[in-house]
Amino acid sequence: MPTILEAIGAPVPHQLDGRSLVPFLDGGPAPEDWRRTVHWEFDFRDVASGRAQQALGLPLNACNLAVIRDDRYKYVHFTGLPSLLFDLKLDPGELRDVADDPDYRHVRLECAERLLAWRAHNLDRMLTHTELTEDGPVTA
User: Fold this and answer.
1) pLDDT digits 0-9 by tens, 90-129
2) Chain centroid, CA 133 distance in Å
3) Are residues 70 and 114 located together in one domain of the fold?
4) 43 and 82 housed in the same domain
5) What is the pTM assigned to this prediction?
6) Total domain count, the chain
7) Which domain holds residue 13?
8) Which distant-in-sequence residues (6+ apart) come within 8 Å of 43 by Cβ?
């Protein structure tokens, strides 16, 4: 979305955590502050039938996950299930979960902390740049 907004000359709302890809359209290099990780979240609740919750033995609000992936590791944190960690260099097919491997404990902790920091930074930001004052709301 930021790419399209920049291309048409529209402002990018502060709520968006994405970045414009316009620098790449002309074959330019990545900006210095370009992120090196990918994050995403997935909600797999089945509100209508409850099948996902029943199959996994989870309550409705525990059927979601968050992921952080860089060029070496992929960490998947579930709300109601054990976490997964994959060493993409040694296991590009993501067939061997190393989350409980003692040799990867430090990697798992680092990934979990980075994911938590990302999630805290990207909480609902609709009112992030707004302050209620005696004169009414002020938006940055």
Assistant:
1) 999 999 999 999 999 999 999 999 999 988 877 766 666 6
2) 33
3) yes
4) yes
5) 0.75
6) 2
7) 1-29
8) 63, 64
- What is d(CA 55, CA 67) in angstroms, rounded to the nearest whole number? 22
b or e along 111-127 (b: 16 or more beta carbons within 10 Å of the residue's beta carbon)?
Answer: bbebbeeeeeeeeeeee
Can you tell me the distance from the alpha carbon of 67 to that of 62, in angstroms, rounded to the nearest whole number? 15
Place of tokens 């992120």: 35
The CB density around residue 74, as the number of other CB atoms within 10 Å, is: 17
Residues 50 and 88 occupy one common structural domain: yes
Is residue 137 assigned to a domain? no
Strand stretches in the chain, DSSP E? 38-43, 64-69, 73-78, 84-87, 130-133, 136-139
User: Could you tell me which residues come within 8 angstroms of residue 54 by beta carbon, excluding any fewer than 6 positions away?
Assistant: none
- Give the tens place of pLDDT for each residue, 125-137: 666 667 788 998 8
Of the chain, the percentage scoring pLDDT greater than 70 comes to 94
